[in-house]
């Protein structure tokens, strides 16, 4: 007898969940636990660093090992009598928001592992030691740590497939569709968390290049575009190299610093976007020129 397609997918979900829980066990109960134990002796790295590397992996591990996997297993054992998994996944979905924290922290965690492996040979040795064990299957700690980042997209794909293969009259139809929608929202939630972190990270780098001027540093600003520009001096018909940063609320007109200590640019002028006017000029001598005028002053600029 051919198993129905939707049951095959549900079984695949169960099998990958079992493998995933083993991977989480390795991360939480082996890597994290052993690195933490060593950190407490004060010989390898500060405890804080280990905590920062593993973020909230313990909560994620407990959730899957003690809640989701057993519930899924119960469902599959009972499949012939009651073929459904949608309700269980609905219970699971809201907890997946915990991943936002882990995913957001992932790049930082990998950087910390690299930095402390260089700084602390005993730390590096302990990791290498655990990586040699059979349970690690010749993969690095970083590789295992990527697994939770990829798990939610995996649920999304499996569940999409499951919903597609369900017969129209299946008792799980309504629940499964709702579950898919919830997982989809969570996946968006963690992607949004990453996007937000990246945005702030990039913004911070720009602020450093500008010398961290107090009144410019604001986390809600958005950088729209930046780049070099020529300033035209009408007095002596010459141009000089300047640099523009356009944010959602202001245009920064900067001079590149010759000696770069700390900041790359000095902000010469700040024009608020509100009330700013831009007008193209038809200048035969200087092509691609335009005027930018704000309340304070007007600049004649030439693009490449």
Automatic annotation (TrEMBL):
One Pfam family linked to the record: SOS1_NGEF_PH
CC per GO annotation: cytoplasm; cytoskeleton
Transmembrane segments: none
GO BP terms, alphabetized: cytoskeleton organization; filopodium assembly
Keywords: Cytoplasm, Cytoskeleton, Metal-binding, Phosphoprotein, Repeat, Zinc, Zinc-finger
Parts forming coiled coils: none
Subcellular location: Cytoplasm, Cytoskeleton
Top-rank lineage group of the source organism: Eukaryota
Residue ranges annotated for the DH domain, each copy included: 5-193
Entry-linked Gene3D superfamilies: Dbl homology (DH) domain (1.20.900.10), Pleckstrin-homology domain (PH domain)/Phosphotyrosine-binding domain (PTB) (2.30.29.30)
Gene Ontology molecular function terms on file: guanyl-nucleotide exchange factor activity; zinc ion binding
Domain PH: residue ranges: 222-304
The protein's name: FGD2 protein
Lineage: Eukaryota, Metazoa, Chordata, Craniata, Vertebrata
